[in-house]
Amino acid sequence: MKVLVINCGSSSIKYQLLEMDNETALAKGLLERIGIPGSRLKHKKGADKYEINRDVANHKEGLNLIISTLIDEKMGVIRDTSEIDAVGHRVVHGGELFASSVRITDRVIKEIEANAFLAPLHNPPNIQGIKATMELLPGVPQVAVFDTAFHQSMDSKAYLYAIPYEYYEKYKIRRYGFHGTSHRYVAARTAVILKKPLEELKIITVHIGNGASIAAVKHGKSIDTSMGFTPLEGLIMGTRSGDIDPAIVPFLQEQEGLSPKEITEILNKKSGVLGLTRGQYSDMREIEDGAIAGDPICKLAHDIYEYRIAKYIGAYAAAMNGVDAISFTAGVGENSPYLRKNVVTKYLGYLGITLDEKENDCKACEKIISTHDSTVKVLIVPTNEELVIARDTKEIVEKNLNELKLW
Q: What does this protein's UniProt record list under function (predicted)?
């Protein structure tokens, strides 16, 4: 079975075509600047890389370009669209309606649309991608895989906020969590590496990229996670503030004469390490280089960044009454030995962790980086959200086919 995985952003589409018989990626790519002059498609087939520069007006036009590229005689990997057996879509917010991936129907689309008020920047382009793909590939089964679904196993003590309960009832204000597909994959993969049943392990998954979140995964279930009602809560990120005193919001509005929209823009796009470095850097690679070189601004930003990560790890070790493994993943987590070393050696020694610095000195590898006698194992586990989406899609489509055969 060949599964096309689609991840639509507001002005971008990330995609991957996977052959599920051996779970390999046949082709992958990224279309950027949809609806903006200078649209660009970066497409990769094996070791070959291609770039198409052509203005793309909307998501349907973009998906048409992607599909055309996949069947192109030179750049493509399939003869025609009939070889695409199913499509899996990343959908950011499933609210409380979706605790697992689902086959897309008209009813499911309406329910995703009903959740759009919870993720106004993300769900609308996700829906556009679904509708466009259904038009371009009629009859091909489509599956929605939700970022929030994995965290629906959280107990009310973890997801409710201490605000008037009526706001939860009226507006569903609660902790939802995000990056669920990544946390789910990394936890399962950690168990495989450790050669232990996932159902017996307490794992803290540390997804650190431009966006960042941590999850406490107890016996295969998410019991808590750092992102909340929106992806703004939790860790310091590239441009997001993470946790702040909520009274700061009205204070700044009054002092600076800011509108709600302007303060939201500041907290989401001008804060985080970008704000801490006075607007100079949002890329952790640059901040890390500056910190190592002795730049005081970069060092301060990095110190605060790693400190917040360590605080959440400590909190989740307490929430699970222990921890067996801590797994670093995503762009920074996978590629920064410096960050991993600082977090582990500065703050986590009380857990009985000893870092193997030789093993830690690698990027984008999959391995255990703690010593053999370390009480808690520390790992690097490269994430693979596209594979999770493709697996769920394959499983749901095959299940539906088997059910039809029974009839």
A: Catalyzes the formation of acetyl phosphate from acetate and ATP. Can also catalyze the reverse reaction.
The number of CA neighbours under 13 Å toward the Cβ of 109 is 13
Residues 134 and 211 in one domain: no
Please check if 334 is assigned to a binding site: yes
Q: Residues 133, 279: one domain?
A: no
By C-alpha distance, which of 179, 161, 82 is closest to 388? 179
Residue with tokens 């920064």: 336
- Which residue in the list 147, 224, 295, 324 is annotated as catalytic? 147
What is the domain extent for residue 61?
A: 2-146
Question: Residue 94, annotated ligand binder?
Answer: no
Residue 7 annotated as lining a ligand binding site: yes
Q: What digits encode the pLDDT tens for the residues 356-401?
A: 999 999 999 999 999 999 999 999 999 999 999 999 999 999 997 7
At 260, the amino acid letter reads P
Same domain for 280 and 355? yes
Are 360 and 224 part of one and the same domain?
yes
Query: How does pLDDT run across 284-315, given as a tens digit for each residue?
Result: 999 999 999 999 999 999 999 999 999 999 99
CA distance 76 to 80: 9
Exposure string (b/e) for 8-30, b if CB count within 10 Å is 16 or more?
bbebbbbbbbbbbeeeebbbbbb
To the query of whether residue 147 is one of the catalytic residues in this protein, the response is: yes
Distance between CA atoms of 116 and 122, rounded to whole angstroms? 8
Sheet with 40-45, strands from edge to edge, namely 48-53, 40-45, 24-32, 13-19, 2-8, 86-91, 142-146, 102-103
Three-state DSSP class for 102?
Answer: strand
